């Protein structure tokens, strides 16, 4: 029996971590060796304009520091990196980074989504890519960046995890699960959609060759090799889209499951064997993201805990900081269904005063404005639970599938009130956990590439997660009719 020891780098929209894992027959154990902030930075660029950036060099530094700890404490089989999707860095012909990667919440894409839909045709884009229309998609970002100095000078485009792997190994490529989120990939052929790329005015030579999860990218090289102790250390492609890795580690024991990958975003949907690209799916804006082992994630992005995170940040900036666990306890006691919003309203996407935007949405729908922090949190969590229910039902209807259980994985699975409300809203049991599903999925794919025992296919991987990780079950309490009434307020 082979036990694989691997390091997973997992970057979320608000923090990153390096996790050391051991994966073998009946064993899946993890140690967090580093955790660091991932705070976007807004910088001026003259004439009152600004840009929202990721601090990608700071992230690379923190990753290396974490990997140094991991490689000093164990003999590593490999390293794998996943992160949020759609964002990228541009390299010049000498392989140097051209500017700082721009955050998908930056306003440069304002209005561009409609323009792209109109000029290229929404039906055509969807028929090829199967991807939901969101302003954050790489396609939209690239059209927004057309004719900029950086894009004109660029000779390759690397998505964030691919960029970091390039800095570790010197090898360029595009891991396919993350590449699918660009809205530039042919979802059925698992290849770049060259015709669409050209039609969008994107230089096709920017896009590197695709790689599948499990492929070896290369050995840690150059300065990174010296920093990590000088040994031979492979970097392996994982499901480098964090959501792809998270769904690998859903501890399901049935195929009739739905999921919420619950972090800054909530990704709500089903796993399918093949994409469902239909007109009804397009109008409902359902996406077909590519998963590990040829699977499809049929889902929608629900705006997620971003509404809560950004509210907390707004309060802290205004000198009214709130402590989350106390706030959740108060929210659990707050009046139910006082006000409900649609979390997917595009007005909530950009950074800024979230409580004010939520209050405005309540006013517009004739509902009381949340007055206390607890009322606002209650409003956010009930609104999310309703959005999960709506999205799960749509996913089932559009794909002709049924589910018996809803898995909530990721950081949000710790939020008991949210899990309970979701079980009540959906009327099926919720299984919450693991919190670190993404890192686990990352580790499992690496372990399989290393020839590890007990991780042959997704079913085996999930059985291992179910046998080793803690989960919590929430039975529906029968309050579904209250949710029905609340849902009608938004019709
Ligand atoms: C989740 C996620 C979503 C993606 C969003 C933006 O972390 O990767 O799947 O739609 O971030 O990249």
TrEMBL record:
Signal peptide: none annotated. This is Pentulose/hexulose kinase. It comes from Actinoalloteichus fjordicus. One of its GO terms (cellular component) is cytosol. The lineage of its organism: Bacteria, Bacillati, Actinomycetota, Actinomycetes, Pseudonocardiales. Residues 259-450 form the Carbohydrate kinase FGGY C-terminal domain. GO terms for biological process: glycerol metabolic process; rhamnose catabolic process. GO terms for molecular function: ATP binding; glycerol kinase activity; rhamnulokinase activity. Keywords: ATP-binding, Disulfide bond, Kinase, Nucleotide-binding, Rhamnose metabolism, Transferase.
């Amino acid at each position: 029996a082979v036990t694989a020891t691997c390091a997973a780098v997992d970057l979320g929209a608000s923090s990153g971590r390096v996790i050391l894992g051991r994966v073998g027959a009946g064993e899946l154990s993890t140690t967090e060796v580093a955790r660091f902030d991932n705070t976007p930075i807004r910088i001026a660029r003259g004439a009152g304009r600004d840009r929202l950036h990721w601090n990608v060099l700071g992230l690379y530094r923190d990753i290396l520091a974490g990997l140094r700890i991991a490689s000093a404490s164990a003999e590593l089989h490999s390293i794998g990196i996943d992160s949020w999707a759609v964002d990228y860095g541009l390299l010049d012909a000498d392989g140097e980074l051209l500017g700082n990667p721009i955050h998908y919440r930056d306003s440069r894409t304002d209005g561009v989504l409609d323009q792209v839909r109109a000029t290229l045709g929404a039906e055509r884009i969807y028929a090829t890519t199967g991807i939901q229309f969101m302003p954050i998609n790489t396609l939209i970002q690239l059209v927004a960046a057309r004719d900029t100095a950086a894009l004109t000078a660029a000779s390759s485009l690397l998505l964030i995890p691919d960029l970091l792997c390039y800095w570790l190994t010197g090898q360029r490529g595009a891991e396919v699960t993350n590449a699918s989120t660009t809205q530039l990939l042919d979802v059925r052929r698992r290849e770049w959609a060259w015709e669409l790329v050209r039609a969008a005015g994107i230089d096709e030579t920017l896009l590197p060759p695709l790689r599948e999860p499990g492929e070896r990218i290369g050995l840690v090289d150059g300065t990174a090799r010296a920093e990590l102790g000088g040994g031979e250390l492979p970097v392996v492609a994982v499901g480098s889209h964090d959501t792809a890795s998270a769904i690998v580690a859903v501890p399901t024991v049935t195929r009739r499951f739905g999921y919420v990958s619950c972090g800054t975003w909530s990704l709500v949907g089903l796993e399918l064997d093949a994409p469902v690209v239909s007109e009804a799916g397009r109008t409902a804006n359902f996406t077909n993201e590519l998963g590990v082992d040829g699977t499809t994630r049929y889902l929608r992005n629900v705006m997620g805990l971003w509404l809560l995170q950004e509210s907390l940040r707004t309060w802290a900036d205004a000198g009214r900081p709130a402590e989350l666990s106390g706030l959740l306890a108060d929210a659990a006691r707050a009046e139910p269904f006082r006000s409900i919003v649609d979390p997917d309203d595009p007005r909530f996407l950009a950074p800024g005063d979230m409580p004010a935007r939520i209050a405005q949405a309540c006013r517009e729908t004739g509902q009381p404005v949340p007055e206390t922090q607890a009322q606002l949190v209650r409003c956010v969590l009930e609104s999310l639970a309703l959005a999960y229910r709506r999205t799960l039902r749509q996913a089932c209807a559009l794909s002709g599938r049924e589910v018996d259980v809803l898995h909530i994985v990721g950081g949000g699975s710790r939020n008991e009130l949210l899990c309970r409300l979701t079980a009540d809203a959906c009327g099926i049991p919720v299984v919450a956990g693991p919190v670190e599903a993404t890192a686990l999925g990352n580790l499992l794919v690496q372990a399989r590439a290393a020839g590890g025992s007990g991780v042959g296919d997704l079913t085996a991987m999930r059985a291992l997660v179910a046998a080793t990780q803690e989960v919590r079950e929430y039975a529906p309490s029968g309050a579904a009719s209250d949710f029905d009434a609340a849902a009608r307020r938004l019709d």
